[in-house]
């Protein structure tokens, strides 16, 4: 059985993995879905939340786990998983980017236009328009969360998820990633694209894919939250990845 570490995206916490976590655990896997600092139930002041803090916290988590893990980042969660792979590539069997920011060395989230130009792909405007606060966070109003994240979800899932959507610390988004081919580049990277995504549109995903060149690409025909809307399909994909990469490492 494999060990998965699942990292949430903007405005979310580890709670957004509840369905995926339960399904993977039911199949015998070990799953961690932490709240990043300043997110979910974590109370770290937002001005103390940096990409390095997220990286250090996740490195400490991975170092406390026996063997290698499949490390997945959703959406903005792609930023810290890239830095963790640079820090401890020996702890990671595979990186999985689930409609996530997979940025090349030296780029921050604000540099998407540069990535699109390098890829020769015209970027699309996503629905997400966060409202900045004076405390260093941004907020999506509940009505915005409904459309941006959960427009294709059931009424039951929207009622569960939307009240839990919270503030997002903004400092990490402005921080360029620092990656090397020797460390980060040594880890297999799988990108799961979502072709109907209105938050991180498919052109934007494919620009990052073209520039960052993952090991493989898996395509889901869905919006931005397959961890809520397409749980069986996502679990099957993750178990297949674990079988091919984590099992190979164990052997």
Brief descriptors of the model:
6-stranded parallel beta sheet, alpha/beta, 35% helix, 3-stranded antiparallel beta sheet, 251 residues
Characterise the protein shown here.
This protein has 251 residues and is an alpha/beta fold. It has a single domain, classed as Rossmann fold. Helix content is 35%, strand content 16%. It contains 9 helices and 9 strands. The strands form 2 sheets. It has a 6-stranded parallel sheet with strand order 2-1-3-4-8-9, with helices on both faces. A 3-stranded antiparallel sheet has the order 5-6-7, with no helix packed on it. Helix 2 crosses helix 3. The chain is globular and about 45 Å long. The model has no long low-confidence stretch (mean pLDDT 94).
In N-to-C order, the SSE pattern is EHEHEHEHEEHHEEHEHH
Mean pLDDT: 94
| CATH second-level architecture | 3-Layer(aba) Sandwich
Query: Separation of termini?
Result: 13 Å
Number of domains: 1
Helix content: 25-40%
Number of strands: 9
Strand order of the largest sheet: 2-1-3-4-8-9
CATH superfamily, by name, is: Alpha/Beta hydrolase fold, catalytic domain
Structural class: alpha/beta
- Name of the CATH class: Alpha Beta
Number of helices: 9
Rg (CA only): 17 Å
Q: Please indicate the percent range of residues in DSSP E strands (runs of 2 or more).
A: 15-25%
Protein name: Alpha/beta fold hydrolase
InterPro entries: AB_hydrolase_1, AB_hydrolase_fold, MES/HNL
Keywords: Hydrolase
Pfam families: Abhydrolase_6
């Amino acid at each position: 059985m494999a060990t998965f570490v699942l990292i949430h995206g903007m405005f979310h916490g580890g709670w957004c993995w509840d369905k995926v976590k339960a399904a993977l655990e039911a199949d015998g896997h070990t799953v961690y879905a932490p709240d990043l600092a300043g997110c979910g139930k974590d109370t770290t002041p937002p001005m103390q939340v940096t990409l390095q803090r997220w990286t250090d916290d996740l490195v400490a988590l991975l170092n406390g786990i026996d063997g290698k893990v499949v490390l997945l980042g959703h959406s903005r969660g792609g930023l810290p998983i890239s830095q963790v792979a640079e820090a401890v590539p020996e702890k990671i069997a595979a990186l999985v980017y689930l409609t996530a920011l997979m940025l090349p060395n030296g780029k921050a989230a604000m540099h998407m236009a540069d990535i699109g130009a390098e890829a020769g792909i015209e970027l699309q405007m996503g629905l997400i328009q966060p409202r900045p606060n004076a405390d260093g966070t941004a907020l999506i109003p509940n009505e915005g969360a409904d459309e941006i994240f959960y427009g294709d979800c059931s009424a039951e899932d929207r009622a569960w998820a939307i009240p839990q959507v919270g503030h997002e610390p903004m400092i990490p988004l402005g921080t360029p990633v620092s990656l090397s081919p020797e460390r980060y580049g040594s880890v297999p990277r799988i990108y799961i694209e979502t072709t109907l995504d209105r938050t991180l549109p498919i052109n934007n995903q494919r620009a990052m894919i073209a520039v960052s060149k993952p090991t493989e690409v898996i395509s889901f025909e869905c919006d931005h939250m397959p961890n809520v809307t397409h749980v069986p399909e996502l679990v099957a994909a993750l178990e297949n990845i674990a079988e091919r990469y984590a099992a190979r490492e164990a052997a």
